[in-house]
Each structure stands twice: as C-alpha cells, then as structure tokens.
Design a protein that fits this description.
about 130 residues; about 20% helix; 4-stranded mixed β-sheet; 3 helices; alpha/beta
C-alpha cells in the first residue's frame, strides 16, 4: 500500500531551489542533515512532496550517477486557480520563463512553462472549463 507520493529532483544548488519553492508557497517538511549544510530537503503542497537532493551528495553516498541537466526530460505540473498571477509570482521568485501563459486551442485550459533555479521544468495549468 502506498502511504505517500514524492518526486525527487537532483540539484546542483539545493539552497537556491529550496528558496524558490518556499517563495512559491510550499512548506519545508523534512531536512537532512537536521543541522549544517543541507544535502536533502523536502517541500510539500497539496499532499505531494518534492525532494530537493544534492546530486553531488547522492553520487558520493551511493554512486547514483545522477546530474542536474539544462535539458529537462520531465516536468512538475502545478494546477492553480490563476496561471497568470502564479506565473508572474514564480518568475519574480527566481523562475526562468519558457512559455508565458497561453490558452489551449479549445479555451478550456490555460498553460505556462518555466524552470526553477536548477532548470527543472514546471508547467502551470488552470482549468477554465468550470468556475
């Protein structure tokens, strides 16, 4: 039985990513080690956790062979009430714009894409078909 779901992002700069996600309103739920330089920290929103892990530490500890990449192959989707304001907030918080807010062809959804400080891709989605 699954008790919780979490996505881990391997980071070159855990502190910059932590600052970004907390500015977006996610709350810190766990940190390791408990004191000193952070090697892994988890932030949470809507019951989902995102782990921010030092790629260097992960490789040193258990030789995972991971590395942050400027070319994302995955994205984290944030469903929100107002894509435009959340997008502006995320860019002001340190995100880098990829695609500014745009409507879907059927006008039911509004999307935007950006990247966090370590170039992990985020997609913002607003459901406009109800409300």
């Amino acid at each position: 039985m699954i008790a919780q779901l979490q996505v881990n992002l391997f980071c070159a700069d855990v502190d910059a990513c932590l600052a970004f996600y907390t500015r977006l309103g996610l709350t810190e739920a766990f940190r390791a080690p408990a004191t000193g330089p952070v090697q892994h920290v988890e932030v949470e929103a809507a019951g989902i956790r995102i782990g921010l892990t030092s790629a260097e530490v992960a490789n040193d500890l258990v030789n995972l062979g991971v590395a942050p990449s400027g070319t994302p192959s995955t994205e984290i989707v944030f469903w929100c009430d107002d894509v435009d304001s959340f997008y502006d907030h995320a860019v002001a918080a340190g995100g880098t714009s990829v695609v500014p807010p745009v409507d879907s062809t059927d006008n039911r959804l509004r999307f935007a894409w950006l990247r966090d400080p370590d170039a992990h891709q985020l997609k913002l989605v607003q459901n406009r078909s109800h409300g």
